[in-house]
């Protein structure tokens, strides 16, 4: 018995050494190159503390002057009432499952008639200012670019998204808007992002100059980033949304050329309160006309659609307190997503609503799915990790032009599902124990979806996640408590792709 007790620690030590040798074989593979062969894709980013003296200081005086006038108009049209609490929680139907005669219109927000009249009067005051305000917005006419907002945990997925953008061949400039200087990452903004033709901009440097200062967070930031951007034609892109098609082509084709505004669908029916249509004096569309929207991606041209952008901005400024509940009544992902199309409809301007529903990506699992009835084609439980948003040109050709040669639109973007953004610490903790489990689908499925053999988009995304893990480790403040990301993601990459 004593011999067994003496031998046990020795056996344990031997097993630990064997395990260490097994896993140590999975060192970080060579980082996949993105830039041309004659350029250096490695970046050495200093780890010094953020230097607030390096923050972007200059903004067009005309933009500052415009914001002064706009901030006064926004303040003068602020709603005086408050919505009753608790706020409702709508349960929408899946849009793909409803019939053409579907007419359900939830009415869950109990507003006194006096509050509806207050909201209506405030809305009318602001809309009356738009013909005077819209022509004065300064921007570079004819310019094209991409606008996004990101800080903290959204910066690593943004870096992946931008590197995937450059894989499409896009050369569009990118503006990365951050809410204030406290979230500014000097090392990232001054070393990694400029190599991707991306520029960090501080929103508060402009908004704090107005007579009426505004405090923004979350969903509110996106409409303000679009307004303050220098671009005329712009693609609004969430930090965790990945382009897989050339945005320039989307901007230079129908339906954008004619419509000037394109929005993508979510999975569900709309749940707008009837009170919104009363206060905005806009007739409610048939519930079966289009699905609820997503703002993961949005195309807009200022030279034709500044007024609806300004109205969407008003909805977002008063979003958390008033317009998000009015437009969604607590439905999933309530936020800015309905504000843009709602503004376009109120002002009766052109718009194109993509009708092809998002296509889920994910993997089979033995665990019960978090969403009801979510299964793959084989009837197995399915974990959704992302969804595909369709190419506008193909959707337009199929639905508007009735082009029978297009059976299904090509993918334009991959939108990460909640919890699956390509932020190295989060994504490696999810997949480290499932090292043989792909995230979006099998290799053959990726080839079929994204253009043929060799186009393994998931492999590309993992390679860029690995690149960001190795580049940002020890640099990003949000990762101060997350060590070893480069090696951990590298092991997953090597298990999956060799």
Describe this protein's structure.
It contains 18 helices and 11 strands. Helix content is 39%, strand content 12%. The relative contact order is 0.14. Strand 2 (174-178), helix 5 and strand 3 (198-202) form a beta-alpha-beta unit. The chain has 498 residues and is an alpha/beta fold. The protein has helices at 2-24, 61-76, 113-133, 155-167, 186-192, 204-207, 220-228, 247-251, 256-259, 274-279, 302-317, 319-328, 339-346, 392-399, 424-431, 443-450, 457-472, 485-497; strands at 144-149, 174-178, 198-202, 233-237, 241-243, 261-265, 293-301, 352-353, 359-364, 382-390, 411-416. The strands form 2 sheets. Strands 3-2-1-4-7-6-8 form a 7-stranded mixed sheet. A 4-stranded antiparallel sheet has the order 5-11-10-9.
Set out the fold topology:
Blueprint: H1 2-24, H2 61-76, H3 113-133, E1 144-149, H4 155-167, E2 174-178, H5 186-192, E3 198-202, H6 204-207, H7 220-228, E4 233-237, E5 241-243, H8 247-251, H9 256-259, E6 261-265, H10 274-279, E7 293-301, H11 302-317, H12 319-328, H13 339-346, E8 352-353, E9 359-364, E10 382-390, H14 392-399, E11 411-416, H15 424-431, H16 443-450, H17 457-472, H18 485-497
Task: Name some characteristics of this structure.
globular; 7-stranded mixed beta sheet; 18 helices; 498 residues; 4-stranded antiparallel beta sheet; alpha/beta
Give a short overview.
The protein has 498 residues and is of the alpha/beta class.
Give a short account of the largest sheet.
Answer: 7 strands, mixed
Strand content: 5-15%
Helix content: 25-40%
For the residues shown, what is the average pLDDT?
Answer: 88
Report the order of strands and helices: HHHEHEHEHHEEHHEHEHHHEEEHEHHHH
Question: Compute the gyration radius: what is it?
Answer: 25 Å
What general outline do the C-alpha atoms trace? globular
Number of strands: 11
Structural class: alpha/beta
Stretches with pLDDT under 50, minimum 5 residues: 4-8, 11-40
Helical segment count: 18
Distance between the termini: 46 Å
User: How do the strands line up in the largest sheet?
Assistant: 3-2-1-4-7-6-8
């Amino acid at each position: 018995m004593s011999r067994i007790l003496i031998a046990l620690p020795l056996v344990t030590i031997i097993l630990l050494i064997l395990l260490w040798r097994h896993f140590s074989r999975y060192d970080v593979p060579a980082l996949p190159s993105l830039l041309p062969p004659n350029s250096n894709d490695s970046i050495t980013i200093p780890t010094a503390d953020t230097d607030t003296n390096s923050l972007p200081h200059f903004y067009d005086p005309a933009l500052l002057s415009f914001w002064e006038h706009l901030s006064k108009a926004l303040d003068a049209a602020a709603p005086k009432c408050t919505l009753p609490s608790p706020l409702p929680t709508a349960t929408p139907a899946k849009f793909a499952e409803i019939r053409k005669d579907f007419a359900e219109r939830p009415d869950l927000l109990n507003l006194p008639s006096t509050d509806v009249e207050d909201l209506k009067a405030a809305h009318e005051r602001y809309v009356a200012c738009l013909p005077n305000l819209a022509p004065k917005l300064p921007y570079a006419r004819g310019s094209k670019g991409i606008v996004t907002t990101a800080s903290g945990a959204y910066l690593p997925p943004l870096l992946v998204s931008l590197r995937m953008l450059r894989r499409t061949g896009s050369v569009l400039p990118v503006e990365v808007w951050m809410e204030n200087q406290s979230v500014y990452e000097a090392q990232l903004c001054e070393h990694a992002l400029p190599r991707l033709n991306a520029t960090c901009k501080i929103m508060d440097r402009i908004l704090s100059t107005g007579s009426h200062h505004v405090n923004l967070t979350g969903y509110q930031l996106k409409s303000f980033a679009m307004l303050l951007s220098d671009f005329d034609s712009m693609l609004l892109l969430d930090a965790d949304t990945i382009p897989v098609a050339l945005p320039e082509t989307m901007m230079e084709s129908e339906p954008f050329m004619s419509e000037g505004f394109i929005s993508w669908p979510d999975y569900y029916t709309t749940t707008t309160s009837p009170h919104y249509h009363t206060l905005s004096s806009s007739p409610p569309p048939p519930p079966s006309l289009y699905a609820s929207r997503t703002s993961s991606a949005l195309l807009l041209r200022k030279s034709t659609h500044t007024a609806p952008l300004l109205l969407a901005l008003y909805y977002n400024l008063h979003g958390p307190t008033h317009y998000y509940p009015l437009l969604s009544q607590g439905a999933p992902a309530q936020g800015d997503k309905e504000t843009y199309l709602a503004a376009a409809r109120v002002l009766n301007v052109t718009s194109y609503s993509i009708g092809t529903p998002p296509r889920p990506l994910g993997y089979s699992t033995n665990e019960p799915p978090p969403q009801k009835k979510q299964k793959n084609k084989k009837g197995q439980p399915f974990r959704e990790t992302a969804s595909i948003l369709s190419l506008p040109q193909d959707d337009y050709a199929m639905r508007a032009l009735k082009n029978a040669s297009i059976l299904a639109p090509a993918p334009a973007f991959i939108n990460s599902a909640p919890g699956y953004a390509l932020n190295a610490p989060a994504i490696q903790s999810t997949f480290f124990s499932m090292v043989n489990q792909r995230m979006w689908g099998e290799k053959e499925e990726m080839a079929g979806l994204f253009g043929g053999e060799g186009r393994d988009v998931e492999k590309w995304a993992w390679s860029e996640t690995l690149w960001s893990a190795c580049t940002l480790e020890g640099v990003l403040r949000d990762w101060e408590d997350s060590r070893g990301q480069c090696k951990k993601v590298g092991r997953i990459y090597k298990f999956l792709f060799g």
